[in-house]
Every structure is written in structure tokens, then in C-alpha cells.
Amino acid sequence: MRFDDFRRSDNIDDRRDQEGGGGGGGGGFPMGGGGLGIGTIVVLGIVGWALGIDPRLLISGAEMISETTQHHQADSRPSKQGAPTDEVGSMISGVLGEIDDRWTEIFKANGQTYVGPKIVLFRGRTNGGRCGMAQAAMGPFYCPPDRQIYIDTSFFKQVETRFRGCSGSACQFTAAYIIAHEAGHHVQNLLGILPKVTRAQEAAGSRAEANALQVRVELQADCLSGVWVNREKKKRPNFLEDGDIDAALTTAAAIGDDTLQRRAGRDVVPDSFTHGSAEQRKRWFMTGYQQGTVQACNTFAAEKL
């Protein structure tokens, strides 16, 4: 991915020097307003499925509560606002700037106004605002009430080394795909999709029904990330390099629910999916990438995911 000429966004809250961040509680998918994360189940899901524990319980346990005071003290150190100058931070800032510009164009064409999300960069853990604790183990996630994306940048390295979701320079585009996925949740929030889904999940008659709704949310975000790539390629025809799209598809497969369950040594249980299978995630990203419209991403009307 060529990103040297990307517009750098200064809508970044860089807490990476805070060494552990702040307290809180919560996490998981948005039952009642929690965070939405492409990586939430990557680590905690493996442990949860292996032990038969709801992954959200691993995020919101008593240990977090007992550490709140300590973390708030660490969080009192000032963060850095604006576009970072290090390589990873600059790449993230550039991707966010381009995401904001392309979605601004899309919203404007439909008579709407787009205001982009803020990205919070951290190491280890930090205060996740109204979505509670943000921890590295949760992976990147979007907090709907605060309209912020939380990213521990070490996750990108985990995708490459632990989950083999990419390799070499193509991992930069994988990072962009992940950020664009979280920005897709922001688009869903602005369009009123997330609040409707949250209400439907609260009224669901079973966990399987609530999970099925969440899968449609996540697959739509994958599709919306593909829409951004489509629009960015039209704006900057040379920004993609050989292997970039393949890297995104490899990452999507590596963090598919069925892949994670097999890696944990368990049977594949579709009713427990919250993000979609490897094949579904790849297909919906490609749908957005090939068609380039929000309308193509209506997973809620799709008979087949």
C-alpha cells in the first residue's frame, strides 16, 4: 500500500506513552452500548471457546475493577493529540484521513453530513470511555456512544506473526482494512443501524438470535471497508500494490469465527458466531470492493450471508 500522499488526520489521541492506560470495565459486542471490535474474539474467543466461557466475561471480570485506581493514575499522564510522526502512527493517521475524505464524499452525494471518528492509540490498556476498559486482548474496537476507535498497535503485529493473516509489506494494507472495518461501524452508527440492532438484540429470544444479528453487523462493516478501498482506488489508482487485496482476504479468513474455533480445537458451532465465517468475511469485503456502494452492503436484507 502506498500511503505517502495520504492526507494525515489530526483526530488522533495517542496514549502509547502512558504505559498501561486507565480503568473501567466492559467490552465485547454492543449489547447495551459496548464496543465493537474486529479483534475482540481473536484472543479472548480462543480462550472462551476452549474453556466454554462467554468471552465477554473474560473482559469484564473483577480483576479489571480491582485495578481501576491504578489505571486511572497512569491515565493522568497527558496523551499526545494530533497526527503522530512515527511510522505506524503516521500510517494510521493517513488511513484515517483518507477514510474520512472518502466517506465525506459518499455522505455528501446523498445529502448527508459525515463527521469522522477519533482514533485512540494505546499500549496494553486504557480508559475506553463509556465502553469501559480497552485492552490489547480485545483487539481494535469501535465505541458507539463516544464515536471513537481504540487500537493497540501491537495487534497488527499479532495478525502477521500469530494468526498469519498477512506477510511483509502487505501487512500495511491489512492494517488499513482493519481500520476501515472499525470506521465501517462508525458509518453504521451515523446511519442509525447500530442503535436499531442493539434494540433488536435486547429483545432477542436467545443468544443465538442475538449472535446472528451481530454477524450481520460485522459482515456489513467488512463490506463497508471494501467500499472505502473501492473509492480510494478511484481517487488514487496506484495506492494498492500487488498482493494487498489478497492480504486483506487472508486476514479476513484468519479471523473468521470458524477458523478461530478450529484453532481452539473445538467443533465449529455457527450459532456461536459473532463475526462470520472466513468465507463470509471474504465475500462481503469483496462485495464492497467490487461494487463500491453502501447499498451493496445490506447484509440485513441478504437471504444468504
Describe this structure in words.
By secondary structure, the protein is α/β, with parallel strands linked by helices. The protein has one domain (12-18, 40-46, 79-301). The protein has helices at 40-51, 55-59, 62-66, 68-75, 87-109, 154-161, 170-190, 193-202, 207-235, 244-254, 257-263, 278-291, and strands at residues 12-14, 36-37, 80-81, 118-122, 125-127, 133-135, 141-143, 148-152. It has a six-stranded mixed sheet. β7 and β8 (148-152) form a beta hairpin.
**Low confidence ranges:** 21-33, 40-44, 46-53, 56-74
Q: Supply the number of structural domains.
A: 1
In spatial order, strands of the major sheet run 2-7-8-4-1-3
The percentage of residues in β strands lies in 5-15%
Which word captures the global form?
globular
User: How large is the radius of gyration?
Assistant: 18 Å
Q: Structural class of the secondary elements?
A: alpha/beta
Biased composition (Basic and acidic residues): 1-19
Pfam families: Zn_peptidase
Region (Disordered): 1-28
Transmembrane segments: 31-51
